[in-house]
Input
Amino acid sequence: MVRILWHQGESDIQDGKYTEYYEKIQRFFDELRTELSVPNIPLVIGGLGDFLGKTAFGAECMEYQLINEELQKYAHHHENCYYVTVKGLASNPDGIHINAISQRIFGIRYYEAFRNKEHIHEPLTNENELVNECHNRMNTSAEKTYIALEQFTFGKMTYEELLKALQ
Output
């Protein structure tokens, strides 16, 4: 089943833009669902990180919590719409983007909201374990093919080694 995942960027979290944000996303999501002819498609909305407003490029993003409130309000007032928290996740050194491990954890939270059709307002108790399970699983044949082709492309594998890996 198809779902829409939404993660707000930082462009609306300063200069009082949050005051118009609810109306803006309501119009956007209504038009999106209408244009796609999927009025009840589930929508999973990710919040903004509490690392914003502190350092580097994210220092100016002081109104992130106000945007999170608007996102939560929207999710709580619309059918087939679920909010996912970024609580406890970390940023890259730029202070604005979620770092790699936090992206994986965030993905697990998105999946749980998607699977269970529920809001995720707190970190999951087993999210680190779930991320480890994802990383420690066997690669699929498609993933093995991609990795071998990448190794060959970067000159880290001979053509003969590639052919053997693709068998």
Summary: The chain is about 45% helix and 5% strand.
